Amino acid sequence: MAERKPFHEGLFKEGPDGGALLGSKCTSCGHVFYPPTGRCLECGHEELTEIELSRRGALYTYTIGYMPTSHFMPPYALGEIDLPEGVRVFAPLEMTEAKPFEVGQDVELVIGKLWEEGGKDIIGYKFKIV
Ligand SMILES: [Zn+2]
User: Fold this and answer.
1) Cα(38) to centroid of ligand 1, in Å?
2) What tens digit of pLDDT does each residue of 85-120 get?
3) What is the pTM of this model?
4) Cα-to-chain-centroid distance, residue 61
5) Distances, alpha carbon 85 to alpha carbons 2, 22, 68, 88, 117, in Å
6) Spacing, Cα 34 to ligand 1 middle (Å)
């Protein structure tokens, strides 16, 4: 099995329950951020705690890409997902022919291999239609 490497450290965790995105929550005003930040962008407070974000959210918008990128071959889908904590996450969407995307539909986090690089599996996150 190939070595696994996150595409970026500190953005998500893997686990038997499917893992989670890691956000930060301001200890002063309670605002939640993703990606995590060291300073509250609402009130300027510098004490934030790491929290696991909800795995389910609602699709705010999406687009289908038809130009190849260095990591994704067309067609591929990208979307913005609204999570209950009040954050909007930009992420790839799992393509399915059976269920076309619709704004507002429920989506769920999937953590797994996004692409291969230098013999390693690059791990990241995407969302799939529930
Ligand atoms: Zn704050």
Assistant:
1) 11
2) 999 999 999 988 878 899 999 999 999 999 999 999
3) 0.91
4) 14
5) 34, 12, 33, 9, 33
6) 14
List CB contacts of 46: < 8 A, sequence separation 6 or more: 38, 39, 40
The parent domain of residue 123 ranges over 4-129
Classify burial at 96, counting beta carbons within 10 Å of its beta carbon; exposed 0-12, middle 13-18, buried 19 or more. exposed
CA–CA dist 31, 14 (Å, integer): 24
- The total of structural domains in the chain comes to 1
Residue 35 alpha carbon to ligand 1 centre in Å: 15
CA of residue 42 to ligand 1 center, whole Å: 5
